[in-house]
Amino acid sequence: MARLARIELTPDEIEHYTGHLGRVLSHARELEDLDLADVPPLAHPYPLRNVFRDDVAGSPVDRDEVLSQAPAAAGGQFEVPPVLGEEA
Amino acid sequence: MNTAHAIASDVRAGTRRATDVLEDFLGRIEAHDGDVHAFNTVTADQARAAAASIDAAVDGGRDPGPLAGVPVAFKDNLCTRGVATTCSSRMLEGWQPPYDATVVQAMTAAGAVMIGKTNLDEFAMGSSTEHSAFGPTRNPYDFARVPGGSSGGSAAAVAAGFAPLALGSDTGGSIRQPASLCGIVGIKPTYGRVSRYGLVAFASSFDQIGPFATDVADAALALGVISGHDPADSTSIPAAVPDFEAALGRGVEGLRVGVVSELTGSGRNRAANGGPVQGDTALGNAALEDAAGEVLDGIDADVTERVLEAAGALADAGAIVGRVSVPAVTYGLTAYYLIAPAEASSNLARYDGTRYGLRIEGADVEEMNRLTRRAGFGDEVKARIMLGTFALSAGYYDAYYGKAQRVRMLTRRDFDAAYADYDVLLSPTSPCVAFRFGERADPMTMYRCDTCTIPSNLSGDPAMSVPFGTGAEGLPVGVQIMAPALGEEAMLTVAAAIERAAPELAAPRFAESSTGGAA
């Protein structure tokens, strides 16, 4: 789970979180006894339809203001370490 | 008087200066926030400039608006342009948003003066503020106890007299529970009533912004200011905003009030299901002793007694009070603690060291992500992200997330059935009064704080907490009033009636001694 969630953990921490999640999930088992076959899932409080707006340009937040808050930026873009390794 | 109504009225009339009002509140913060730690940031300089411009407007014959000169505290997960917005996380320490949340714009446009940003459980995940990366907030009534959470800083700020109004966010009870524990009023509006644009997302299908105030009238005033459709939030409801304050004086004659059996024990006789009964207190209480449905464990008797007294007061005032069973609420907690972490695991994927906040360098992007998230997130946030990742993972999705969503539908249906017979529902807000630091270290024990508040987040319906007397150790108790979607008016009518009948609640001792004089 830690790998999927992209969080680096030590072996001790893995043990700690295994206990934490185990306690919560053991409570989740109470749902197993419920017969919910006829109850559809609800993802959202209200039925929503996609909302469209007119295709006109708005006033976006200022690029320099956004980039000023980034850990690293260069040439008007966010800067990150290599994504695909040396040969990319 | 230091209510928002009194301040705005005086400032608009020119009998009080916004700058004087501000200095009065800043003085109390200066004197006492070292103990309380309600604020992550106090924006004194910016507030002084804003207050001066309110005074200038009044001098120039212009009306600054319904919140003229009223200091307001914003939970530190509401974006404020150029002012640090941390979510009480190392991940966003020092981050300055490039825009204001819609509610921040609305409050400012109404004449309110931002006085600071308040502490919370990291990314709003918690019920005590103990999960803040910057240290907990203390309850103004007892510094050894929590103020509740996650909006504990906002609740403590209002209770301590640091601001007459504050905004918070409520995902599973994060406005109502701290309001209850701090002896003030807190409202979670209908999902979609208030724009979420600029609220840092936790669980998007639950999150809703709402006000804290010292009385129902101030809370209604603030709710009116922040409500309304916003094109920038696609889940915002395009409904007209009623005059919430007009609902306060309507009286409860004939209103049907259902006490939720599963959340409110009787402590006395239990008999068959009691339908709505009209009558005096004696008759009302007799009906209330007819419990239907299984009462959940862990709801303290002192809290239950106050709720039943509030119900009795409503019956005295002419309401039709009965008991109603909402069976699905017993599964609400479990469903919530699968769905909310699932949504959080997705929402918090954006904190990867790229665009804002913390970055720990790594050899490649993935290592940077993992190291950044390790260093930036606290214990509870990591646990919930992993729980949510698990609940959504292939092979477990149907058993956990899918099943929880079906329970959510069940909750919706059970509420619909209850609202066919009742206009509003009543329950405790919190199962207990303010608890001591460290007392609820086990995660499930902490999560149970949200037992009574979570059902309204699952359904999306409005709910609020109003103080009604005290429980153990003389600590405040809150009564929760729930209403169907867009039913805030009836909810406020009942809240005002409960407030009128409530025993006087003493202010926190230090706040009382420092009111009246500017520091």
What does this 3D model show about the protein?
The complex is a heterodimer of chains A (88) and B (519). Chain A has a domain at 1-32. In chain A, 26% of the residues lie in helices and 5% in strands. Chain A has 2 helices and 2 strands. Chain A has helices at residues 11-28, 63-67; strands at 73-74, 77-78. Chain A has a two-stranded antiparallel sheet with strand order 1-2. Chain A starts with 10 loop residues before the first helix and ends in a 10-residue tail after the last strand. The model of chain A has no long low-confidence stretch (mean pLDDT 87). With 519 residues, chain B is of the alpha/beta class. Chain B has a domain at 4-230: Amidase signature (AS) domain (Amidase signature (AS) enzymes, Alpha-Beta Complex). Chain B has 17 helices and 12 strands. The longest helix of chain B has 24 residues, at 398-421. Chains A and B meet through helix 1 of A and helix 10, helix 11, helix 12, helix 13 and helix 14 of B.
Nutshell version of this structure?
Helices cover 26% and strands 5% of the residues of chain A. With 88 residues, chain A is mainly alpha-helical. Chain A is flat.
In N-to-C order, the SSE pattern of chain B is: HHEHEHEHEHEEHEEHHEHHHHEHHEEHH
Radius of gyration of chain B: 22 Å
Helix content of chain A: 25-40%
Principal-axes geometry of chain A comes out as flat
Rg of chain A, nearest Å: 23 Å
- Global geometry of chain B: globular
Q: For the terminal residues of chain A, how far apart are their CA atoms? A: 28 Å
Q: Predict the CATH topology of the domain at 4-230 in chain B.
A: Amidase signature (AS) enzymes
| Strand order in the largest sheet of chain A | 1-2
Q: In CATH's first tier, which class of the domain at 4-230 in chain B applies?
A: Alpha Beta
CATH homologous superfamily identity of the domain at 4-230 in chain B:
Amidase signature (AS) domain
Please give the alpha-carbon distance between the first and last residues of chain B.
Answer: 16 Å
Order of helices and strands of chain A, N to C?
HHEE
Strand content of chain A: under 5%
Class per helix and strand makeup of chain B:
alpha/beta
The second-level CATH architecture of the domain at 4-230 in chain B is: Alpha-Beta Complex
